[in-house]
Each structure stands twice: as structure tokens, then as C-alpha cells.
Write a structure and sequence with these properties.
This protein is mostly beta strands. Helix content is 0%, strand content 21%.
Length: 281
């Protein structure tokens, strides 16, 4: 590719001939759909200098295996690498402040992700349905994790950085391998449906400052046997522990309200000692 090229448009959409691409330093932008469904594209070498990777740029490049994003990249579009079944490891440079919606959606062989310092947001469904993803490095610069960002992955343990102050719904929903989750000190409560249907979850660490357990936070966590809520928790949201069939004991300490169906179908829960602070059930 000549050095005079500054922008690659959608010229390679559905291309069946391109196997490898070398993008020189003069190219500043890959447009939306630049290599969309280039189904035999295996390797992309990107020189430092590229700034923008547009939406759907490499979506459905099913055999793409070798990918290194240079530090110069500052913008990544939604679905940029969605359905890239060949990807196994990804490092996102710190110049990309926001990982957009579904950027790596349904990359079934993606095993590890490193988010470099500087990344501040992981968007909705960014890594949803990456069913082999078992390792992620989250930087201290991370402030926001969107809805279903890591749902249907393969983590056995997940730690929310203390820097995260905003978290969406269902972040770890249907992660059937998840055994332990540790919530960070930057949040004020457990997000809605955060671990819904995490069927192997047995250990939950919640900071003392949290004031609520969100709606459906641990619904259908069928391996969870006990919960000791911090004394700071004042509200247990609707269906928070719905369907936790192995749950035997819960210490609610200073809770003021327990909402509808909070412990519905917790068939092994033999009793709860209600505190004097309780005002509504």
C-alpha cells in the first residue's frame, strides 16, 4: 500500500482475496466497514500513525488472528472487531479512551484482554458473548463499565477496580464459570442483575460503604450458600436473590427495606433475623 494513502474506505468489504494487510504510517483513518466480512483476512499490521478505526471496520473477519493496535489509535468504532472468531489476545492502547458498544462482541476464541492505562470506559456489550474470555487487565483509569460488558464470558474471578464509579446492568450475567466477584470502592451499591445466572458463584465481596443491592443482582445464582451484607446496606432490591436455591443464610444487619421477591424460591433459606432498622418488606 503506497505511503500517499491517508484513508482506507470500504473498498475491501466482502473481499475474498486479501489474506494480509500492511497499513503504513501515513494512513490516518480506516472508515466504517473498511474490511467488513473480508473472510480470509488473517493478519493486519498497523504502523504507528493510524488514529481512527471506524465502526464495523473488521467485523466478521472470521480468521483474523494477528492484531496489534498502535498507541496512535485514539478512536474505535462500535462493532469494530465483532464476530472475529480467530482473535485470541487483544491489547487496547491507552489512547482509546472509550471502548464502544459491542467492539469485540461475540469473539468466541478471545482468551485475554489488556486495557492499557488511559482507557476510561468499556461500553455496552463490548465483550458480550466472548465465551473463552477468562483473563482481563483493567487499568486504574477505568471509570465506567456499561450494560452486559462482560456477560457470557469465562471468568472464574472478577474484580471491579476502585476507580469505577459507574456500572451498568448485567455486567457479568450468565458467566457460568464465575466463582468469586469483588466489588470496588468507587460504586455506592451492587448494580442491577450484575451476576444474574452466574451459576457457579460462591463468594461475593462487598465494601462496607455500599447502601443497596440492585434489582436481580444475584438472581438464579444457584451455588450461592451464604451472604453477609455490610452494615451500610439499607435496601435489598426486587428479586435480588430470586432463585438462589442453595442459599441457607443471610445476615441483613441494618437493612431498612426488603423489596418484592427479594428471596423468592430460596428454598433452603430457613430464616432471617430482621433488624430493628427494618421499615418495609
Amino acid at each position: 500500500m503506497p505511503d500517499t494513502v491517508k484513508k482506507i474506505s470500504s473498498a475491501f468489504v466482502s473481499n475474498l482475496d486479501v489474506v494480509s494487510v500492511n497499513i503504513p504510517s501515513g494512513v490516518k483513518e480506516l472508515s466504517d466497514y473498511a474490511f467488513y466480512t473480508a473472510r480470509y483476512l488473517e493478519a493486519v499490521t498497523i504502523a504507528n500513525g493510524l488514529e481512527t478505526i471506524g465502526a464495523h471496520a473488521f467485523e466478521r473477519c472470521g480468521v483474523l488472528k494477528n492484531l496489534s493496535l498502535p498507541d496512535s489509535v485514539s478512536y474505535l468504532g462500535e462493532y469494530a472487531f465483532a464476530f472475529c472468531a480467530g482473535l485470541k489476545n487483544v491489547t487496547v492502547p491507552g489512547g482509546i479512551k472509550e471502548i464502544p458498544e459491542a467492539a469485540f462482541y461475540s469473539c468466541p476464541n478471545l482468551e485475554s484482554v489488556t486495557l492499557s492505562d488511559g482507557v476510561s470506559s468499556v461500553g455496552k456489550s463490548a465483550f458480550l458473548n466472548c465465551s473463552s474470555l477468562s483473563a482481563v487487565v483493567l487499568p486504574d483509569s477505568l471509570e465506567k463499565i456499561g450494560d452486559s460488558a462482560f456477560a457470557k464470558t469465562a471468568f472464574t474471578e472478577f474484580v471491579f477496580p476502585d476507580s469505577v464509579t459507574e456500572a451498568g446492568d448485567s455486567i457479568l450475567a450468565e458467566v457460568s464459570t464465575l466463582k468469586k466477584v469483588t466489588f470496588g470502592k468507587g460504586l455506592s451499591g451492587v448494580p442491577d442483575a450484575v451476576c444474574a445466572a452466574a451459576s457457579s458463584l460462591t463468594e461475593v465481596i462487598i465494601p462496607d460503604k455500599y447502601t443497596f443491592i440492585g434489582m436481580g443482582a444475584f438472581v438464579d445464582c444457584v451455588a450461592l450458600k451464604s451472604m453477609d451484607l455490610p452494615k451500610s446496606v439499607k435496601q435489598i432490591g426486587p428479586s435480588a436473590f430470586y432463585g438462589c436455591t442453595e442459599l441457607e443464610s443471610v445476615d441483613v444487619h441494618s437493612v431498612r427495606s426488603i423489596d418484592d421477591y427479594a428471596f423468592y424460591n430460596c428454598v433452603k433459606l430457613s430464616g432471617i433475623t430482621f433488624p430493628t432498622t427494618l421499615r418495609s418488606i
